[in-house]
Amino acid sequence: MKKIIFVIGISLVFISCQTNTKKDVSIIPEPKSVEVQNGEFIINDETKLIYDNEFGNIDNILTYVNNHLTKSSGAEIKTAVGSNVNENSIYFKFDKNITNEEGYQLQSNTDGITISASSNIGIFYGVQTLLQLLPTEIFSQSKIDFDLIIPCINISDEPRFKYRGVHLDVGRHFFTKEDIKKYIDYLAMHKINKFHWHLTEDQGWRIEIKKYPKLTEIGAWRKESMGDEKPHGGFYTQEDVKEIVKYAQDRFITIIPEIEMPGHSQAALAAYPELSCTGGPFEVGTVWGVIKEVYCAGNENTFEFLEDVLTEVIELFPSEYIHIGGDECPKERWHECKKCQSRIKRENLKDEHELQSYFITRIENFLLTKGKKIIGWDEILEGGLAPQATVMSWRGIEGGIAAAKQNHDVIMTPGSHCYFDHFQGDAANEPHAFGSKLTLSKVYSYEPIPEELSQDEGKYILGAQANLWTEQLPEFKNVEYMLLPRIAALSEVVWTTKDKKDLENFIKKMDKQFERYEFLKVNYAKSAYNVNIGTEFNETSKTLMVAMSAEISNVNIFYTNDGSEPNDKSIKYISPFIIEESTKIKAVSYKNKNLMSKTTEKDIKIHKAFGKNITLKFPYSEKYTGGGKYALVDGLNGTNSFADSFWQGFEGDDLDAIIDLGNSTKISSVEMNFNQNNHSWVFLPEFVEISFSKDGVNFNKPIKILNDIDPKYAGSIKKKFTSQFNIVEVNYIKVYAKNIGKCPEWHSGAGGKAWIFIDEVTVN
Ligand code: ACM
Ligand code: ZN
After folding, report:
1. Which ligand is nearest to the CA of 302?
2. In the structure, which protein residues have their CB atom closer than 6 angstroms to any atom of ligand 1?
3. How far apart are the first and last CA of the chain?
4. What average pLDDT does the structure give for the chain?
5. Nearest listed ligand to the Cα of residue 258
């Protein structure tokens, strides 16, 4: 039995008694119960770390503790096995009564700290909590030469969900082994226990497969990305993978590898074109999107290949699950392929969707013989679920609901709350990203169990996961930016019980969490400090007022209204205010004397419909409200990106709005901006019509404005539709914009609902 003593380089020992208030304690994710008591314990030179025999080999945990706590002295870890617990110790106590293996209790008094658990993982989570009870400096790599004080406290904790996942796409951009280890560390400190490693894509195959060397010789390299003429690539050798798996295991994180099929497989087909329907040739994908080249489902060699690949993958990953993709598999190649069609006939399948189901079920059967279960994206529901598949619901929550109702396990990853590749603040202040806005508090608001499920059905929801796609993230620092701090919000979504979730408290705790990120020198996003400028309708005065806020609310907001740069000498924002004329507002947030934000700038344009009542025949999408009811008359225009907060989106529907000007008003122009970003299924309207009325019932013959921009135009554009006319005196204005309805034949989303996006109806 080893008899060694844990030493920290701190010389001063004294116990002081004082009252700790709960606000000093800042643990993320919030534990199940926390009682702060009077007094504190100081870890000093003499403090020993003692642990019970039952835990077996806990070197990984001791190393982890050491990495954080002995930086100051460089002293070796000194530990002792056994229950000889003296004063001045950190004691890992085996307690079989703690039934959740991930649960733990942490008790500290003036004599020492006890972490109790029934398994090593419980101890590890107790250690994570312990680290958060200590000064945030312990997250730094540099010397700490002061006392490590921990308040006397009593914590009892366990996770709400057993699947707490974060994903990373290394297909679109490759990140090094060291980057992946850092990523795993970020997951561990947030008590995430699953790392979904998306290893294969159209744009890159990233894992060495010995039997098929061309997968990485050819498939891991692309000549450019979106026309930048810069080659990109890389892959993990099997030795790298083993090292990373071990690194994750030491942190109690299971890596779930994803090998995509039947779609998102162009890189593999570039290496082995004979596995496609057409025979190729292909190059590794260079543009993002959904690509129609997929594995041939009629060819036996495809299955032999995939089984060989999976056999090697299984050897490397101890995970009970293998993710087999299954998303976004266009069926057009299968539709035209003799082999695929004869498979459909031979197997008595109805169509290509059932062929996909055949494909996935066949792979599932193979994996089951190897003792592995599959996870697939929610498209695997189409054509029938493979019998034991777990469904990852990403296109909203509907797939998850459907799967749970069929008694299948589900992991929730809806784009609305779990896609960390989306903007985390206003586009104007953010690096280029995808899709809509997913703020820290929106992540926090997520409830993984849909209300549509009964209590029994809800048990099929194993947990939730954040997905991090990397089309727009060429460097690891970009990845860090998208992951942190939103992973902190996710951690409470999946760990903390519903009754303990509290946004206000979470936001307060982020102060300390940001300090930890600072000490880790991670490139976390500070977007939550940026000021949001919007409007708020005041029901008493019946006016639209300018309102400002920051997600991190314990800041002071200062602004200017004359175009000058704001600072902490500018006007302090107290509450919403009225503006009488068009104004440029520039705002920043400060904490004490420190500038915390970028400058947010907004032009608020007063016009004749500003703040007037607007009614819509077809509702706007809840995903893109543009600010809600008054979005089209709030004086706020959008940027070129439809994903900023100022565009209102209509999915498949037309815009059909009536604005009540309140009284008879002389006007001579109406103008509207619409947006096109066809990559995201957003199109300009076919035409726009404007008509007027005195009574709100009878409208004159509309003025029609045609769209002259090609729906195929690939960039992101904002187009103004303007109508100028001789002065008329009207009470009501009707605007109608014709949605093209469905994505056209040539579009990758052909047949799917097209969007229109509008920011404002400006009336002068
Ligand atoms: C996905 O986002 N295509 C799963
Ligand atoms: Zn085929």
Report:
1. 2
2. 327-328, 377, 394
3. 86
4. 93
5. 1
Instruction: For residue 539, give both structure tokens.
Output: 């029901």
The per-residue pLDDT for range 253-305, each reduced to its tens digit, is 999 999 999 999 999 999 999 999 999 999 999 999 899 999 999 999 999 99
Secondary structure string (H, E, C) spanning 110-125: CCEEEEEECCHHHHHH
Tell me whether the omega of the peptide bond preceding residue 685 falls within 30 degrees of 0, making it cis. Answer: no
Q: What angle do CA 9, 512, 123 make, to 5 degrees?
A: 60
Pocket test for ligand 1, best of 394, 422, 434, 436 (most atoms within 8 A of CB): 394
Strand partners, 722: 671
- For residue 192, report the distance from its CA to the centre of ligand 1, in Å: 21
Residue whose entry in the numeric block shows the structure tokens 């366990």:
158
The ligand whose atoms approach the alpha carbon of 299 most closely is 2
What does 188-214 look like in DSSP terms, one character per residue?
HHTT--EEEEE-EETTEE-B--TT-TH
Number of Cβ atoms within 10 Å of the Cβ of 672: 24
Calculate how far, in angstroms, residue 43's C-alpha sits from the geometric centre of ligand 1: 47
47 or 559, greater pLDDT: 559
What is the position in ligand 1's atom list of the atom closest to the CA of 415? 2
How far is 228 from 224, CA to CA, in rounded Å? 6
Share of the chain above pLDDT 70, in %: 95
CA distances from 102 to 91, 163, 209 (A): 18, 11, 34
pLDDT of 73 over the 70 cut: no
Atom of ligand 1 nearest to the CA of 392: 4
The span from the CA of 609 to the CA of 209, in Å, is 63
0.85 surpassed by pTM: yes
* Nearest Cα residue to atom 3 of ligand 1: 327
In the predicted structure, residue 18 carries a pLDDT above the cut 50? no
**pLDDT at 481 > cutoff 50:** yes
Q: Could you give the C-alpha distances from 281 to 114, 268, 298, 630, in angstroms and in order?
A: 63, 12, 18, 53
